[in-house]
Specification:
Elements (H helix, E strand, L loop, with lengths): L5 E4 L5 E7 L8 E5 L10 H4 L9 E5 L16 H15 L4 E7 L1 H16 L28 E8 L9 H11 L3 H13 L4 H12 L2 H14 L9 H8 L4 E5 L6 H9 L4 E3 L7 H4 L1 H15 L2
Parallel strand pairs: 3-4, 3-5, 5-6, 6-7, 7-8
Antiparallel strand pairs: 1-2, 2-4
Helix pairs in contact: 2-3, 4-5, 4-7, 5-6
């Protein structure tokens, strides 16, 4: 596959950028890969360019709107549901029949919403506590996806689950509130460039290419999803916990906040540690992480 993103115009008219690795068989199950805040589809290049992992799966890594080579959206209102809608359109264009979602960081919230919409499109019911007449309704829920693919499972890599996971997004929004966002963003990118880790330097390249307005809008959406839904759960965690699907959370010992790990333990959610690694687990330990995911997908797709 080419080392640059391809583009396709969706039925809605939006031109989305993506990387892919296909088996040649349109009936092969697919893996949809969703990157994090400020990132792009290069987050998954270790896998989209390696034929030795995920054999038998079609791989699709998109540039979410406002990131990579995909244009930003005109409005930040209902930002994540709009992203889900475009991702769903893309998957429909690819005529995917069975899909597994693998998401990183911010992509974990978008991936959770996409899984939610697939379930709703297949007749699922919103939890009673999330009634539209209730003040406990989550923010910006995405619409049901009719005739969507069958969901194999959801792999969430260092995705947002608690308020402790808003380290970067929180700093971005705080900087903007004090009119320091441009300076903060420049300093953040410089820190990534100077990092000793290859994964951070790759991320710096993605940050340089993203729309700064879109970065800030997505950071604000992440903070909204990280507000408390109840005494124990942030909205992002409540949604992920509720999803009645095959799922696994992957993190790194040196990266996961103690609050998030305690939350996973308390809610008995299956998770695995992939060390040594930082926040970009799939870049720092690509083979180990791929094999961990493959074992789950093999079990789930039997």
């Amino acid at each position: 596959m080419p080392d640059f993103p391809q583009k396709t115009t969706l039925p809605s008219g939006y031109e989305i950028a993506f990387r892919e690795r296909e088996t040649g068989d349109p009936d092969s199950p697919a893996i949809l890969m969703l990157h994090g805040l400020g990132d792009d589809s290069t987050a998954w290049e270790h896998w989209t360019e390696d034929d030795h992992v995920f054999s038998g799966w079609n791989l699709y890594a998109v540039d979410l709107p406002g990131f990579g080579s995909s244009p930003g959206l005109n409005s930040s209102t209902n930002l994540f549901p709009k992203m889900v809608e475009l991702v769903a359109e893309f998957i429909a264009v690819k005529q995917v029949k069975h899909v597994a979602v693998v998401a990183h960081s911010m992509g974990g919230v978008i991936g959770s919403l996409y899984c939610f919409s697939l379930l709703m499109g297949r007749g699922g019911e919103i939890p009673e506590a999330w009634s539209h007449n209730s003040s406990t309704m989550p923010p910006e829920l995405s619409e049901p996806i009719p005739d969507g693919p069958e969901l194999v499972g959801f792999i969430n890599i260092e995705g947002n689950l608690t308020s402790a996971d808003t380290f970067v997004s929180g700093k971005a929004v705080a900087a903007n509130e004090s009119s320091r966002f441009t300076r903060w963003m420049a300093g953040f990118i410089e820190a990534m460039i100077r990092s000793e880790h290859d994964s951070d330097r790759r991320y710096a390249s993605a940050l340089l290419g993203c729309e700064k307005k879109g970065f800030l809008a997505a950071a604000q959406a992440l903070l909204t999803w990280s507000e408390l839904a109840n005494e124990k759960d942030a909205w992002c965690g409540a949604l992920s916990k509720w999803l009645p699907i095959n799922k696994l959370y992957i993190a790194a010992q040196d990266s996961i906040p103690a609050e998030t790990r305690s939350w996973l333990d308390e809610n008995k959610i299956k998770y695995e540690m992939t060390d040594p690694a930082g926040h970009f687990v799939m870049n720092d330990q690509p083979e180990k992480t791929a094999h961990l995911i493959e074992s789950c997908l093999t079990e789930w797709n039997m």
